[in-house]
Amino acid sequence: MSRAERLVLDPIGCRGHGVCAELLPERITLDEWGFPLLAPGDLPAGLHRSARRAVAACPARALDLDVERH
Amino acid sequence: MTAVLSPGLLAAGDPTLATHLAVHGPLRPPAPDAVADLAAAHGLTGRGGAGFPVAVKLRAVAGAAHAGRRRAVVVGNGAEGEPAAHKDAVLLARAPHLVLDGLQLVAAATGADDAVLAVPGPVVAVLERHLAERADPVPVRLVAVPDRFLAGEESALVSVVDGGPPLPRSKRPPVRERGVAGRPSLVQNVETLARLALLARGDRRAAAGVLVTRHAAGLPVDVADVPLTARLDAVLPLATGVQAVLVGGYHGSWLTVGTAAGVTLEPAELAGVGAALGAGVLAALPEDRCGLVETARVVGHLAEQSAGRCGPCLNGLPRIAAALQALARPGPPHPGLLADLGRWCGLVVGRGACSHPDGSVRLVASALRVFEPELAVHASGCCRARPGTAPFLPLGSGA
Question: Sorted alphabetically, which SUPFAM superfamilies does this protein's record hold (chain A) (predicted)?
């Protein structure tokens, strides 16, 4: 059994602070208004730690990690 | 107007309980499990816009209630915030008891002990009188919904029922798990409920029809009950004086007359030409109006009606609306405006908590496709609209 993790954003909670894009630039960029654009698909191996750090650092608590068990 | 009417939903001559019973007969409540089975057997889908299978929704809410050991709440959605749609209002005025029968059926199917009918404020009093004539096993509360475009969105409606603002909320957890008062909740459009009430009486055609609001020049706006197998050009007159057709309402799509005349109202067929029946609006834009002007005006309204809760929608829709307004004015557009518009559309799609940005962009994209020749006319400083004509598509109540 493997665990696939995926970043999910609550678009209402997000206030565009942009912290996530600084901590996880490999998966998150900001649009021209400062709101995050998430790369589609599951998190690649090796990014789980920084993803968790980005989730924990969101001032609006709008970023989360969904865990799917396959 | 040419009609391919089936009797059924609007068959009763008046809205009283006596006429309802005389025309449709009494409702013999099926076993709770049988309601979802009935909806599944006839492929009944929601008539509120998204077209989701009713049986799947019923079972999901019943399942969530069972898993959470909480009684479900059912909500009949008659909010109809779409300015061009009147079908739910007509249905509630002409066949309120079919809607109320359907509400009892879904309450039984989900094991709900609380039923809500959410409707525009002005019709609460008359529905109160209809309710008083009935002896329903599950008591029904009437809730007044403010006249806003997004008030009928599932999570916004739940907020209204709970005494909050008519604004969509986050989809996690979903309404089926945590809706009204934090309980598992089913929100179902009133037309869907009425069709379920006919299905439960053995009217097999009920799942194969749809209520449409028709807008055509020179004819009164009306609501008709038509089969999904009807050709669009049999439901709406397209033969002369029409330049394009709006299908589905303000989250819908413009089609050329040629495309519209070649399809029926079947969801799969409409999907094949990039359209969906949505809120059931069909509008034939006359030759002497400008599709860019009409669309710019509607998109301005959609931008105003954004709940403003999600960044991309809050930032994107006003810019998209302003760009369309610029394109709707005769004269060469600002260089790069079309490129900006395309980029902004791409930036709002799929990034809202509700489907408002996606629906708005669908309308814009279809307008740029269908009215592309008019863009060139505008760039040369002209516009096809006859000066002084009133806008064709309505905005806001009674407009």
Answer: 4Fe-4S ferredoxins (SSF54862)
